[in-house]
Amino acid sequence: MALFTELQLDEQILKAVNEMGFEEATPIQSEVIPKVKEGNDIIGQAQTGTGKTAAFGIPLIEQMNTEEKHPQGLVLAPTRELAIQVAEEINRLGRFKGVKALAVYGGQEISRQIKALKRHPQIIVATPGRFMDHMRRRTIRPAYMNMVVLDEADEMLSMGFIEDIETILAEVPEERQTLLFSATMPKRLQSVTERFMENPESVKVKSKGLTVSNIEQRYIEVPEKQKFETLCHLLDITPPELAIVFGRTKRRVDELSEALSQRGYAAEGIHGDLKQEQRDKVLRKFKNKTIDILVATDVAARGLDVSGVTHVYNFDLPQDPESYVHRIGRTGRAGKEGIAFSFATPKEISHLKFIESTTKKKMIRQDIPTFREAMQGRYQQAVDKLLETVKNEDIEELEHTAKTLLSGYDPVTLVAAALKMNTKEPDQGTIKLTEEASLRPKKSRGDRNRGGDRRGRNRGFRGNRGNRKKRR
Ligand SMILES: Nc1ncnc2c1ncn2[C@@H]1O[C@H](COP(=O)(O)OP(=O)(O)OP(=O)(O)O)[C@@H](O)[C@H]1O
Ligand SMILES: [Mg+2]
């Protein structure tokens, strides 16, 4: 860690950094920021939640000319929510310097974006598909861009955005500076770095494994049919502040969020078949804690930074170890603690071991929690609620009634009854959850095959690829 004052930043950026409450630069920031200033192409790898956004955002802002009318910086990101978030962070960092970023992504009216472009943002943060749209309409001219950042480049590759990126970068002047960031750098990414970057310098923050140590990683071997009860029990035993539950498919996410709601949890789902408005609404509710459980496909696995996420549950194991790293990285951010639970069916244990071998971190095995433990958790919640009321609520009015009650009943009986009333009822009612097949051990699947799967499954919900095709 280094002080930001040692990084020779613009005064205005330093001021923004201070106001954001950053005290010291994180390792990736202190390594990358000076190197970007030297003008090199950089490949930056550091664990999830360690400030990669500001690591590229700060030097990007520094090199923007606020007199210039055309956008000069471009950040490409795999998902719409991530594009929005990165633009927000850049706007916070750049506000005293007068550098503005605009998020441009599928699912939002293009006319609205065209209007916003007239306010001359220096930096565009885009999903590849929508950026291509703007390029074709000539509403954005890449010819003036001199810095390009590929955030989560490996994910854009998996999603099949490679050709789009190629098309985009062919229109950005060659003498640009290109930066590439991710917490994971699978080998297949080399093709991207070779094609799009010039003598890139690799900056990799030294660490024991791919995941941060402040995330406790656990797994539970559980048959498919018992997963849902197991999840409910875990939620009861230690209620999360905010939790993300990852499911494999969109249908799974729909069914799971419905089932959780039915059982009385404040849960909603997010995936790519939802309208963008709905996606925004759900994420907003999660951020302001109207709901405390977000059920998601991998659309929420990358880059999303929501403070207060204490728990991540892999209801279904992810196919790729990379996806595992990013999913669990939604907790334990910026030095905070987090816990990740992964469910593996007996057949999937070998796949889990394969994930462990990639992350170089063993998960702690835990038994399936019992109904009794879950009930204890619920009672504890009732106790907490009662004590909270004692502490914070105005209950004087009820004192007379309480005394009358106490004259006729034993106090232990009364308190126990009050607790019982406040305890969530044992689960009942049937829920609908279509079974997922166990994942096959990864060894039998090729890289290309996996990439294709993901692309097929996710198409249309990141970067609006589907719509673009129709218009063409
Ligand atoms: N120097 C700093 N000090 C304190 N907090 C910071 C600092 N830099 C960034 N942060 C905060 O840490 C959080 C995580 O940062 P960021 O989203 O950039 O992580 P990341 O490395 O891109 O993670 P991911 O791999 O998941 O995308 C954000 O809330 C960010 O504002
Ligand atoms: Mg990031």
Overview of the structural elements:
The protein has helices at residues 11-19, 27-37, 52-62, 80-94, 110-117, 128-137, 153-158, 162-171, 190-196, 227-237, 250-262, 276-287, 321-328, 349-359, 371-392, 399-408, 411-421, 447-458, 465-471; strands spanning 2-3, 24-25, 42-45, 73-76, 101-104, 123-126, 147-151, 177-182, 201-204, 215-221, 242-246, 267-270, 293-296, 309-314, 338-344, 364-366. The model is unreliable at 444-472 (pLDDT under 50). Strands 5-6-4-7-8-3-9 form a seven-stranded parallel β-sheet, with helices on both faces. The chain has a seven-stranded parallel β-sheet with strand order 12-13-11-14-15-10-16, sandwiched between helices. It is an alpha/beta fold and 472 residues long. It has two domains: 4-204, P-loop containing nucleotide triphosphate hydrolases (Rossmann fold), CATH 3.40.50; 215-371 and 428-435, 3-Layer(aba) Sandwich (Rossmann fold). The protein is globular and about 85 Å long. Strand 5, helix 5 and strand 6 (123-126) form a beta-alpha-beta unit. It binds adenosine-5'-triphosphate (ATP) and magnesium ion (MG). Magnesium ion binds at residues 52-53, 151, 303. Belongs to the DEAD box helicase family. This is ATP-dependent RNA helicase CshA. Residues 456-472 have a biased composition (Basic residues). A motif (Q motif) lies at residues 2-30.
